[in-house]
C-alpha cells in the first residue's frame, strides 16, 4: 500500500480504506429493508412464494393422494391423511424454491453495478449478507404460515377434520414448523449465494439451483415413505438435507417420531426426529454460510483495492 503527500494536507492512501459508518445492527436493518422492498416489487418472487405452492399442493393431493393411501397406512397408520402427510413436503419444497433463488438478487445487483457501490460504502460486509438473509427469512415465514392454512383448508374440504388432527402439536407446533423451515432455508440460501458469487451470472445461478434442488426433493421422504422406495434412494437420502427438513416438520405436525434414515432413541417421542434433524441442518448452515461470507469478503477486497 503506497501513499503520497498533497500541498495542503497530510498523506493520502492510494488504496481505498473502509470508512467508519453505522453499527453492524443499523447496517443489517438497512440491508434488510432494501432487500424486502426489492422482493416485494418483484412479481417472480411473489409467484414462486405464494402462487406456485398452491398449484403444487392441489396437484400433488389430487394426483398422488389416491395411490399413496395404502403405502401411507402401512408406514404410519390408517388415521394419517395424505394432506397432512404432504403438507411438510410442500412447505419444504416451497422454502427450497425461495431459498435456492436467493442468489439471483445478488447477481442482479452485480450486473446493475449496485454490488460494487455497496462494497465501496462503509457498510459492514457481514451486515450486507445477514440483512439479505433476514429478508428471505421473512418471506419464508409468511409463505410457511400460508401453506399451513391452505393444507388445513384442503383437509376440511376432503375430510372435515379438526385442526388438532392436522397439526397434532397445536399452536406451539406452528412455531416449531416455522423454526425448522427457517433453519432449513438458511442452508440453501447460503448455497445459492455461493453459486451467485462464483458464477456472477443469473442463468448459471438458476441452472445450478434447479439442477440440484428438484432431484433432491424426489430423493427424500417428501412424497412417499422411504420404506416403500428403492434401496439406492434410501442410501442417498441419508446425505440429503431435504430428508431432515421434511422429517423435522412432519414429526411436529404428526406428533410422533418419523425419522426415516436412522433410529434415535435418546430424546423420546418427536424429539428423536426433531433434535437430530435440527443439528444436521444447523451443520449445513454453518458450513455453507461460512463459505458464502468468505466469498463475499473476498469479493469486497478485490473490488475495493
From TrEMBL:
InterPro entries noted in UniProt: ABC2_TM, ABC2_TM_bact-type, ABC_2_transport, Nod_factor_ABC_transporter
Pfam families xrefs: ABC2_membrane
Membrane topology: Multi-pass membrane protein
Alphabetic keyword roster: Membrane, Transmembrane, Transmembrane helix
TM segment ranges: 44-73, 85-107, 137-157, 169-192, 204-224, 274-296
Compartments (UniProt record): Membrane
Segments forming domain ABC transmembrane type-2: 44-299
Protein name: ABC transporter
Lineage start: Archaea, Methanobacteriati, Methanobacteriota, Stenosarchaea group, Halobacteria
